[in-house]
Amino acid sequence: MTPPDTALPLMPAINLTLPRGQMPVGLRGPEAAASLNQLLVQELAMRLADAERIITEQRDRIDYLETLSTTDELTGLLNRRGFQIAFRRELAGARRGGRGGVLVMVDLDGFKRINDVHSHQAGDAYLRMVARTLADHVRAQDIVARLGGDEFAVLLTRVAPDQGMQRAEALSATLHQMAMDWQTHSLPLKASFGCQAYGADDREDEVLHRADVLMYQTKAASKAA
């Protein structure tokens, strides 16, 4: 689908001077003034309708550009920028007296081999299936993003740490029960999870770092097993 033109139209200046052909003819005095006022009101209404239409188009195009800049094209999830905006919003809410949550970092295991052995088309399909699995097994208020490559993040928002950890474990179990059929092969979904609770006193970069460390510890343990 060809994306719409993203250039924002300029608002036309409203000029209430009537074209010569629309000036009242054959009328004088009060009748001429009333007729002229009526024509001016009609012209103003038309110009205002045009202005409202252009404003609506501008808003639609701005919304489209904002969505484009925060969405991962392959999976339809938030991208890294969209995730950062969402995470900062959640942390700000926690500081205003709201509840914290749990950040889950998800890094796929053995994804390079899928690309190398089964093709990049298989890899793309695999990423989309992981994205659907994560998104389909969290609440509407939770946030799922693809940060890039084979790395995903899930924000389990407004939840106590113990409950968030339990949900993350359930999410991991669900994902590891899934497999993608590709031609004559069944490719199981595999990933390493790292979970870190966050609250009002936490900083975004620190939470991300701690979750990353835990995720790589899980990945290392899995390889050593």
Short description:
This protein is of the alpha+beta class and 225 residues long.
Structural summary, described in words:
GO terms for molecular function: diguanylate cyclase activity. It is an enzyme of class 2 (transferase). It catalyses: 2 GTP = 3',3'-c-di-GMP + 2 diphosphate. Pfam families: GGDEF. The protein is of the alpha+beta class. The chain folds into 2 domains: 30-68; 80-224, Alpha-Beta Plaits (2-Layer Sandwich), CATH 3.30.70.270. The chain has helices at 29-70, 80-95, 111-118, 120-136, 161-176, 204-224; strands at 101-108, 143-148, 151-156, 179-182, 185-188, 191-198. A 4-stranded antiparallel β-sheet has the order 2-3-1-6, sandwiched between helices. A two-stranded antiparallel ribbon has the order 4-5. A hairpin with a 2-residue loop joins strand 4 and strand 5. Helix 3 packs across helix 4.
